[in-house]
Amino acid sequence: MKFVVQRVTNANVSVDGNIVGSIHKGFLVLLGVSDTDTFEIADKMVNKLLNLRIFEDEQGKTNLNLKSVSGELLIISQFTLYADCKKSGNRPSFSDAAKPDIAVSLYEYFVNECKKQVPIVQTGIFGADMKVTLLNDGPVTIIMDSE
Question: What is the DSSP string of 81-141?
Answer without folding.
Answer: GG-B--SSSSSPB-TTBPPHHHHHHHHHHHHHHHHTT-S-EEE--TTS-EEEEEEEEEEEE
